């Protein structure tokens, strides 16, 4: 089974291939891109132990010489230290501009390796092979690359598009249910931000998809990638519509920061709670009906997702601290916070005018 989505960006256009058993076919997919039979793969310890042998044998069977760098798994790898390590390793491997670097992992590896590729020799080509649901539907697509600073998440980076994305749906079968559902936070976001019919489809089909239905997984990843590809084609550098992809993220990032970017709250879980809060805020502002936030929360709850602040284990700071943490967001414009507000499910817009007092009230009530 194979589906393709095109990301149309003039001379930076590329294809996202979505299907089963693509890992075994990687050599055949990548071969036409190579100018010489040599490739560098960067991955993490978890992905390496599960999938690296399969990837290597597929590349070797096409006569491609493979070098690999295996980094520690986890958010702390998205650092200057590991970016430097990756770049120095690629230089030591004599990776040239026309070679291909493969980012083989979840969002951390994709962001870090994409960033390393963007600065190495002023830009070396790279391919994304995302191994988490979150990376397949979001972080591997659209060219946002980067690392974290002690001052905040993703504050250092570049827009740098890959040559190709290979999303092997079988790999999702090795994810824990918590990681799968965290990725689902980004999937449901697409329905909420711009496709009511997709949201309805998810209401009907997401439970089967989460239980392992491959055709439904392919459809959900494909529809998510189509929506992202469309938005990125319109606004690659996030001057306008691309900000819609941040639905739930202003709330979510503050909650991630409040929980120390730790296992207490995964990124997609923060997005899920953030989407519920964004709809609640929209309703309080009279932008959408009362039914919309209830329907969003109902679906998230039915999927076993986090939807409320009380779903986060342990203490949270008060509403004023959470609002201050929102101020650290990259999307602050002239000191004003950016929120994605909803007129209804599938109908959202970017707003810089949300009254912070209303947000403060909503957070205070949600914290009780
Ligand atoms: N993850 C949001 C974006 O790529 O713009």
Describe this structure in words.
The protein is of the alpha/beta class and 368 residues long. It is 46% helix and 18% strand. The N and C termini lie far apart (48 Å). The protein has helices at 26-30, 45-60, 80-92, 107-119, 133-139, 177-194, 196-210, 214-234, 249-258, 267-284, 291-302, 319-326, 356-367, and strands at 2-7, 14-19, 38-44, 65-71, 100-105, 125-130, 144-149, 152-159, 164-168, 339-344, 347-351. Helix 2 links the parallel strand 3 and strand 4 (65-71). The mean pLDDT is 95. The protein folds into two domains: 2-174, Rossmann fold; 177-367, Up-down Bundle (Dehydroquinate synthase-like, alpha domain). The chain is globular and about 60 Å long. The strands form three sheets. It has a seven-stranded mixed beta sheet with strand order 1-2-9-6-5-3-4, sandwiched between helices. Strands 7-8 form a two-stranded antiparallel sheet. It has a two-stranded antiparallel ribbon with strand order 10-11. It binds glycine (GLY). Residues 138, 142, 144, 242, 245 line the site of glycine.
